[in-house]
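EI: anyone free to look at a 78-residue chain?
SC: sure, send it
EI:
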Amino acid sequence: MSLLRRVRMRHAADLLAANALSIDQVAFSAGYQSRSSFSRTFRRYYGCDLSEYRARAQRTASSSAAPAEGAIEQSAAA
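SC: here you go
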């Protein structure tokens, strides 16, 4: 896989995980004019659908944030 494609896919993954842009906007930002081409390339690179990747990233972010919030509450109580 080319260096440019790897960079584009990593950039797209970061944008999807941030959940601030639509998939069309992410595709355009990653340098793709066609959503279908972007979706196909992303699926081949990451092995999952765009919306599935975004959902996993959100679950990972929320599960990693939960223990930190609990730790803050415990330190405030002490």
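EI: Residues 67-78 have pLDDT under 50 and may be disordered.
SC: 👍
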